[in-house]
From TrEMBL:
The keyword Transcription regulation applies. The keyword DNA-binding applies. SMART domains: HTH_ASNC (SM00344). This is AsnC family transcriptional regulator. Residues 11-72 form the HTH asnC-type domain. The lineage of its organism: Bacteria, Pseudomonadati, Pseudomonadota, Alphaproteobacteria, Rhodobacterales. GO terms for cellular component: cytosol. SUPFAM superfamilies: Dimeric alpha+beta barrel, Winged helix' DNA-binding domain. PROSITE patterns: HTH_ASNC_1 (PS00519), HTH_ASNC_2 (PS50956). One of its GO terms (molecular function) is sequence-specific DNA binding.
């Protein structure tokens, strides 16, 4: 039932435009968005409420400059738990606050996670506890071509 209700509330061109504006500037006011999409502020507010209600928008966030906070290095870590250690490793990942994100993946590894580091020497302190329970492979991020972004938004039929 939830799936049917979700699909019946498809995005139209205006919804796509509102999301695109917010993706570029999450602090845009309803009045600013309304001007861009030729609606009133209350109409934009109602559309945002509806999109949140049905799960098309799950929340709003802030982008932080990690370097300004002292995290000058990021690392991607592929993690392959040893036999019988899957749940324990998952808890370890969740409990380590330096992991900024973690995805369960297919293939040889079970997880791909992203770490924030002040310097490369911290890798040993963070990953050493995993070595009894998992195999890890680390790559240091040299630079990012782009940060998280939305795929192209098109109205759903």
């Amino acid at each position: 039932m939830i799936y049917t209700a979700f699909m019946s509330k498809s995005l139209d061109q205006t919804d796509c435009a509102i999301i695109t504006i917010l993706e570029q500037d999450g602090r845009a006011s309803l009045a600013e968005i309304a001007k861009e999409v030729a609606l009133t502020g209350p109409a934009v507010g109602e559309r945002l409420r509806r999109m949140r209600e049905i799960g098309q928008i799950s929340g709003f966030s802030v982008r932080v400059d990690l370097r300004a906070l002292g995290y000058t290095i990021q690392a991607l870590v592929r993690i392959k738990p040893r036999s019988g250690q899957l749940q324990a490793v998952e808890r370890m990942i969740a409990d380590q606050p330096r992991f900024m994100s973690c995805d369960r993946v297919t293939g040889d590894d079970c997880y791909v996670a992203r770490l924030a580091l002040a310097d490369v020497a911290e890798l040993d302190d963070i990953l050493l506890p995993f070595h009894d329970r998992a195999e890890t492979h680390t790559a240091i991020v040299k630079s990012s071509i782009f940060e998280d972004r939305l795929p192209p938004l098109t109205p759903l039929a």
